[in-house]
Amino acid sequence: MLDKTEKPKRYDAAAMGDLRVFLERAEAAGEFKRVKGADPELEIGAIFELSHEHLYPPVMVFEEMKGCDPTHRMLCNVRVAKFVVGDLNMDAVKAYRNRPKERSQPIPPRLVNTGPVYENVMEGDAVDINKLPTPRWHEADGGNYVGTECVVIVKDPDSDWVNLGTYRVSVRDKTTLSVFIEEGKGGDVIRRKWWAKGKPCPIAICVGQAPILGVVASGASKEGESEFATAGGAIGRPIDVVPARVSGVPIPADAEIVYDGFMPPPSEDSRPEGPFGEWPGYYASDARLEPVMHVKAIYHRNNPIMIGQPPTAPTYPGRQIKIPQVAGLWDALEAAGVPGIKGVWKLPGGGSSFINIISIKQLHPGHAKMAGLVAAGCRAGAYMTRMIIVVDEDIDITNPTEVMWAVATRWDPKGDTDVIDGCWTGLIDPALHPDKRDNGDTTTARMIIYATRPFHWKDKFPTVNKVPPEYADKIRAKWSAELPFLSK
Ligand SMILES: Cc1cc2nc3c(=O)[nH]c(=O)nc-3n(C[C@H](O)[C@H](O)[C@H](O)COP(=O)(O)O)c2cc1C
Ligand SMILES: [Mn+2]
Predict the structure, then answer these.
(1) Three-class SS of residue 444?
(2) Is 7 a domain residue?
């Protein structure tokens, strides 16, 4: 059970800004596990995935990995450890929404001359991706994925815009990496500009970095936005960057491992990429031709740490709630003017995307519908959702049994359901029909379930037969010494 009385943790800027400080913090928090002798071919992947049977899996550092240089390390569970995510409850969502404003003021990166990233350099004929760990996470993966929670860095040819993005990266041969960037993502917009000028796109890929860089690279960003600056703002100091020696794009000076080179236009070189076990728990997007990166140099620190964080199915407990995402949907509902929002949460099984729960204090007829339609249509709730469930404020939406009780008892399927066709989804949506997949029609329907007391006869709606929460608390306080089963 989650302890709902615990206060959300203070933001640990030092750990978020430095991977090695992060490791010390994990150890101090008692959430650290050192593992020696595991095989990066499937074995580490299985240990990693099974660690997700726990809501808060330990931070794991794999050392002396089979077939690897003994000084190389693999780090898993960077952003899912308890000391990083804190409590997963509604108070944490509220605290996130009220977070100090200075954490959202960008601080531009600082250009420095050199850094630990250049402690070891492979160039020219010495370049060999296989000299560093090349994990295979799941049996049916179409390759060894060195980039999972990685940072792909490209620079706009026409402006100062440097984009960071987390896109999966796999090994094709000792100097070639596949990078899977979906159409329209920041990295895709920029690489097309280079190709349109008839030039290969300069690119650097960092596969071990300060945790905050993984956060900003995997979050949505606007064209022109500097995610280095966003990250600097979050940790309260500038990120130090150095120019990559071959591509010239800025890379974190304290990066653990960086591949540096160029991505030629797909007409010049593209190779089959995928499939890769995806977060909905399937291999849905299959293999297809994708552009590749020609690696001209590799830099790494002494005792480098690769970060491994492949997707795991949303059946695992910790894979449901991302506090910033839930808070973001709540913000979006309020920004659209929907009043009376009391909470936003997810139904387990849908991971952090598929099933959104909104609780409202109904103020007028049509209010529940307004909340449901905005949740289905706003940017924070539009992509790859399946279902939105709107409930009354008396439902504890962090308890799936209460949510389904509301559905079971307050929802009349015929009148209280909207099904909206043609909504935005992705190739990794397993329910996307093969014909649509082939046609490029990446849309599926949404269902909105209004499991609220119908507003116009809510006063006639049967009274709930249940000990009220405040009275329950009193009774527990009075009797739990004598009746221990009453204590929570
Ligand atoms: C672990 C992880 C893996 C991801 N893999 C991919 C991927 O292979 N391709 C992709 O286009 N997006 C992937 N994403 C999502 C992007 O990181 C996300 O859309 C991000 O906003 C991209 O940055 P951009 O807005 O600068 O393009 C992944 C996200 C995470 C957290
Ligand atoms: Mn970006």
Answers:
(1) strand
(2) no
Quick check: is 285 in a domain? yes
Q: Is any atom of ligand 1 closer than 6 Å to the C-beta of 220?
A: yes
Does 352 lie in the same domain as 223? no
Separation of alpha carbons 170 and 168, rounded Å: 7
180 CB near ligand 1 (under 6 Å)? yes
Residue the block writes with tokens 């931070």: 59
**Averaged pLDDT for residues 140-147:** 97
Least confident of 49-53, 218-222, 229-233, 332-336: 218-222
Q: Would residue 485 count as lying in a domain?
A: no
309 lines ligand 1 (CB under 6 A): yes
Per the confidence metrics, is the pTM higher than 0.90?
yes
Is residue 486 included in any domain, yes or no?
no
Report the 10 Å Cβ neighbour count for 414.
6
Find the 415 Cα to ligand 1 centroid distance in Å.
Answer: 38
Q: Is 163 in the pocket of ligand 1 (CB under 6 A)?
A: yes
3-state secondary structure of 111: strand
- Report the domain count for the chain: 2
Q: Containing domain of residue 364, as a range?
A: 320-472
Which residue lies with its CA nearest to atom 7 of ligand 1?
Answer: 167
Q: What are the tens digits of pLDDT across the range 55-102?
A: 999 999 999 999 999 999 999 999 888 888 899 999 999 999 998 877
Residues with CB under 5 A from ligand 2 (ion): 163, 165, 186, 221
